[in-house]
Amino acid sequence: MEGMDVDLDPELMQKFSCLGTTDKDVLISEFQRLLGFQLNPAGCAFFLDMTNWNLQAAIGAYYDFESPNISVPSMSFVEDVTIGEGESIPPDTQFIKTWRIQNSGAEAWPPGVCLKYVGGDQFGHVNMVMVRSLEPQEIADVSVQMCSPSRAGMYQGQWRMCTATGLYYGDVIWVILSVEVGGLLGVTQQLSSFETEFNTQPHRKM
Questions:
Q1: Which of 9, 24, 83, 134 satisfies CB 3.0 to 4.6 Å to 138 for a cystine?
Q2: Is 106 exposed, middle or buried (0-12, 13-18, 19+ CB in 10 A)?
Q3: CA 37, CA 118: separation in Å to the nearest integer?
Q4: Nearest 5°: phi and psi at 34?
Q5: What is d(CA 27, CA 84) in angstroms, rounded to the nearest whole number?
Q6: Distance CA 56, CA 31 (A)
């Protein structure tokens, strides 16, 4: 018997140990991870509930029911517009993170899509921003108001596009943040936003 255990893949064993768990939150997060964050927690709970909280059966049910009917939108990450690699930010500083993304598919995105925080460090309270429906091959910038952590160090968070029905799609996009006491980026951004505010003030009164 001992000889048989040697060949078993430890990751597979870990997945099977998860199948036996009664903690529904663990099953939901494992289901979500196995699907590559294609589905929100409520959607995961629906399929798990339908299959008596059997993870393997739930995944089978998801692919049986969902795959033929769903045309998943496409999204490609193009580039970081603000806070690129190697730029640093002081602790506890407000900043705006902007990504450039593209609808890389052949169909327009459905209405009501948004960009959602899915994992890692969140940087502030915003966990979702609405995004307009892009036409095929159209490129747009998406911005999120964030705040750097209070301690110096390297941080990272992941965000994904999500439809109104809770289906995640496209590339995972990252915020990789270097927090340093002498970091300049947040200060530069604040100065340029004050300047914009100052320049646009007279127009607002009209």
A1: 134
A2: exposed
A3: 8
A4: -65, -30
A5: 35
A6: 9
Q: What angle do CA 89, 92, 97 make, to 5 degrees?
A: 50
**Which residue, among 122, 136, 125, 131, has the nearest Cα to 177 in the 3D structure?**
122
User: Residues 33-62: pLDDT tens digits?
Assistant: 877 777 788 888 888 888 888 887 887 788
pTM: 0.59
- What pLDDT score was predicted for residue 64? 72
| CB 116 within 8 Å of CB 138 | no
- Residue 106 is encoded by which pair of tokens? 């052949």
**What is the torsion angle, in degrees rounded to the nearest 10, for the CA atoms of residue 46, residue 50, residue 51 and residue 57?**
-60
Return d(Cα 174, Cα 172) in angstroms, integer: 7
C-alpha to C-alpha distance for 189 and 144, rounded to whole angstroms: 13
Q: Please report where in the chains the tokens 């994904």 appear, as a residue.
A: 160
Least reliable range by pLDDT among 56-60, 106-110, 120-124, 125-129: 56-60
Residues near 126 by Cβ (< 8 Å), separated by ≥ 6? 117, 144, 145, 146
The CA–CA distances, whole Å, from 163 to 36, 113, 157, 197 equal 15, 4, 20, 33
